[in-house]
Amino acid sequence: MSEGASQRMDAFTSLGEPVRAALSDRGFETPTEPQRRAIPPLAAGKNALVIAPTGTGKTETAMLPVLDAIVRSGPDEREGLSALYITPLRALNRDMRQRLEWWGETLNVEIDVRHGDTTQYQRGKQADDPPDVLVTTPETLQAMLTGKKLRRALSDVRHVVVDEVHELASAKRGAQLTVALERLRALAGPFQRIGLSATVGSPEEVGKFLTGDRDFEIVEVDVGSDVSFTVTHPEITPEDEKLAGKLATDDEIGSHVRAIRDVVRDHESTLVFVNTRQTAEALGSRFKTLGEPIEVHHGSLSKDVRIDVEDRFKSGDLDALVCTSSMELGIDVGRVDHVVQYGSPREVSRLLQRVGRAGHRRDEVSRGTLVTSSPDDTLEALAIARRAEDGEVEPARIHHASLDTVANQIVGVVMDEGEVSARRAYDLVTAAYPFSDLDTETFREVVRELSKNRLLWLDEEADRLEKSGGTWQYFYANLSMIPDEETYDVHDISSRGQIGTLDERFVVNFAEPGAAFVQRGEMWRINDIDDEEARVNVTPIEDPSGEVPSWTGSEIPVPAAVANEVGEIRDVAAGQFESGASRAAVARDLRARYPTDAATLEAALEPIERQVEAGHPVPTAERLVVEGQARQVVLNSPYGHRVNETLGRLLAALVGQRTGTSVGMEISPYRIELEVSSRASARDVVEVLETTDPDHVEAVLELALKNSDALKFTLAQVAAKFGALKRYQGRERFGADRLLAALEDTPVYDEAVREVFHVDLAVEETADLLDRLRDEKERLTLATARERTPIGVDGRSSGRELLVPENADASVIEAIEERIRNDRVRLLCLHCSEWEHTTKVRRVRDQPECPECGATRIACLNPWDEETPAAVRADPDERDDEEERLVERAYRSASLVQSHGKQAVIALAGRGVGPQTAARIIGKLREDEADFYRDILEQERQYARTQSFWD
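C-alpha cells predicted for ATP-dependent helicase Lhr and Lhr-like helicase:
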C-alpha cells in the first residue's frame, strides 16, 4: 500500500461510507496534515485542540467527524441542534456557510447561520425548526441561552467547535464564552469540544481554556519548516525621489511604497498587512494615487465595501489588499501567494498567522516579506522572523478571574434559570477554566454589587438570586464584553452608500464641515455631521492633503523575549565592533542566523557602530543604560512594552516623589524616556533602580495608578459592564474623579486595577528585573552615559506614523491657523481670581492683562473648563489633590502667557496641548510661523492617537 493510501486510510477509515463517498466527490485525494492526525481522535468523540495554519483544511478537520456523527444518528433522532460552530467574527460566518453548504447538501445535514444581523423572521424559523448545525458568534450564543424555544433546541447539542480559539483565549469575550459553554453543559449535558487555533506558545493552557480542564488531546502541526521570511529595509533610489514628489511625502516613505509595490507586482495575489487602520488608509491612498489595483480592508469599513474588495481580490481583479489584523483570521479571499508585513509585526504569533495565509498548496512554503523603517524596527523584525522559523511562539495570556465577566455571567445564569441558588451560580462560573480559582467571598462581593445596581435581586437568607426590573435590559445591552465605543457611520451622499465608520474621538476632535480625510484609501470631504443619528455625510474629492482618521485600539505590545533578542543582537555586534570588525563583516556573520540582505543589516547596525565608536555602553538584556541631557533622562531597557511600561510608571512615581515634581513618561520596547524637572537627574533614576524593594512594586504601582488616566478610562468601561453606569454614558459626562471616588472600595475598582495590570503591566517580571539588579551574582548590570547616545536617540524616529507626512502642506497649515484663531479660550486672572472671560483666540490681545486689576498673570483654559476657576478660588488649605493639580496647571499656563503673550494662547488652544507641551513648542523658537503651526498640528495628531488615555 502506498504512503498516500495509508495516510488516507489512517485519517478516513473511522468515517462512515456517506462521508467517505462525499470526500471522493469533493476531490480530496489525500488528507492534509491536520486532517490526518486529528480526524481519528475526533471521530472517537474526544475533546481536542487542533493547532495549524489558516488554509490547511482546519474547518473540514473539525467538521467531517461532526457531520459523520450527525449522519450516523439518523434524521429521526435529530430534533434540536446537534452542533454549534462558534466563530469570533461575523465576517467569517458568510465564508463558513459557503464552505459548509456543499457538505450539508451532499450529506442531507441542515446548516444555518445566526448572528446579530440575522433577520427576526429567520431567527423565528431557527427556533421553531432548528438546523442540525448552527454557525454563530460567542455573543449570539449568550442570547440563545436565554430563549425558551432555543434552550430546548440547545439541549440536544452534542458537539461544539470553537474556531480561532487563540484569538478568544486572550480576550474577555473568550472568558465570557467559557462560562457560556458551562451554562450550555448544564442544559445539554457533556458534549464534545473541538478548538481550532493558529500556532500558540501555550497549547496546554488554551486546551484547558477550551475544555474547562477536562481531558483533551492536542494535535499540533509544526509550521516553522513551512514558512520563509525576508526582512528588508529599502534603500532610497532615484525612482523613490520621484515617487515622493508624486505622493507629497519624503524619500524614505517613497522607498517603502515602491518596495511594497514591487513585491505585489512580482506575485499574483498579495496581502499587505499593517499594524493600524491609520497606516492601512494612508498606504492605500498612496497606491490609489499611483493607480495600482490595490484596495484597503479593515474593520471600520462597511460590510458591503469589505465584501466587495474580498470578492474582487478572490476573482483576480485586485493584485493586493492592504489589511489589518481582522484578515489574520480565516476570511476566505481565495488563494494568497505572498504576504507583505509593513513594519515589525510585534509578535511571533502575529507573523505566523499573517504569513501563514500564503501558499498552502500541497508541500508549498508560505512566504512573507517584512518591510522595515528604522534600525529598531529592523532588528525587531529579524528577531521575530528567526523565532517564528524556530517555533518560539508567545503563550496566550488568559484573563483569569475578570470580575466584570463574572458579573455579566451571573446575570446570564439568572436569565437562564429565573431563580437560582448562589452556590449553583458559583459552581457554574468556576467550572470555566479562567474562573477556577475564584474564591466565594469575591463572588459574593460581585453579587452584592449587582444587587446594589438593581440588576438582580439577592435573598441573602435563602442564598438565592432572582431577576429584578433591570435584569433583562442589562443582559441584552451587554451580550458582548467588548467595551462600548461610540462610532459614526460615514455615508457617501453622492452614491447614498455607507463606506465605513469613524470613532467619536476623531469626529469630535477633527471632523467639521469642509474637512477632508482618508478612508478606503480615497479622499472625502465632510458635508455635514448628524450627531443624533451618529452619521457623517461626505462627498469624494481629489485632494492629497486629508487627515488620516484615528480609530480606537491599543498598540500591539512587543514581548520581553523579542526585545531581549534585539539586545542580544546588539551585544554580539558591539563585541565585534570593539574587536575592529567592519560593519560589512558583522552583517555577514549575522546573516547566517537571520533572513535578510547585507544592506538591510548594515543600516540597522549603524547606530550600534556609532555607540561603540563614541565609547558608550551598549544596552542589552543584561546591561541597562541610563543616559541624560538637560531635562531628558532615558533608560535603555530592551524588555518590551509591558515591562518598560511597568518600570516607567514606577520610575515616574518614585522619582517624582523623591524630588517633589511631576515626571513625564514615554515608552517603547527598548527605552523609557522621562521628562524631569531641574530638580531631578539621571542619578535619581539610577538610585531608584538600585534601591527599590522588588516586593513593593505592586503596591507602589497601584498607588500611582489611582490618579492615572489609564485607570479612570478602564474604570468607566468596567463600571458599564457592572451596570454601575448607564450604557453609552461616557466618563466626560460623569467625571472620572467622581467615578473613582464612588467605586474605590468595590469589585468594580478591583477589576479595573486587575485589567490595567493584566493588559498594560508586567509586575512579576519587573520585580524580578529589580531583584537581579540588586544581586551581585546576577549578570544584570546598570551603566550610565552622560549624554544622549546613538541607540538612545534612535527610538525617536521609530515610533512615528511614517505614512503621515511630517510637514503638512500650506493649505493644511492655513486651515489649522484659521481654526485655532476662531477657537474659543477662557482667560482667568490668577492675581485677583475675579476676572474671567471667554473669547475667540483672534480677539486676544498680544499681551493679555486683567481689566479689573491690571495684572498680566492670565491663565489660558479650555472654554468648557469650569473646574479650574473653582479650584483657584478655593481655600488653599482645603484643596484636594485634583484641585492642587488644576491650580498648578493654571499657574504654568499663566506663566507662559505672561512670558510669550498671544503666541502662548495660540499654542494652548491646540487640541491636547497642555502648558508643558506648549512650552516645548514655543521653546523651539521657530522663525517661520508655518513651522510653529506644524508643531501644534504634530502634537494634535499625537494626542488624537493617544487620547483614549487622557481626560
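The chain has six domains: 3-222, 230-389, 403-477, 488-540, 617-788, 810-949.
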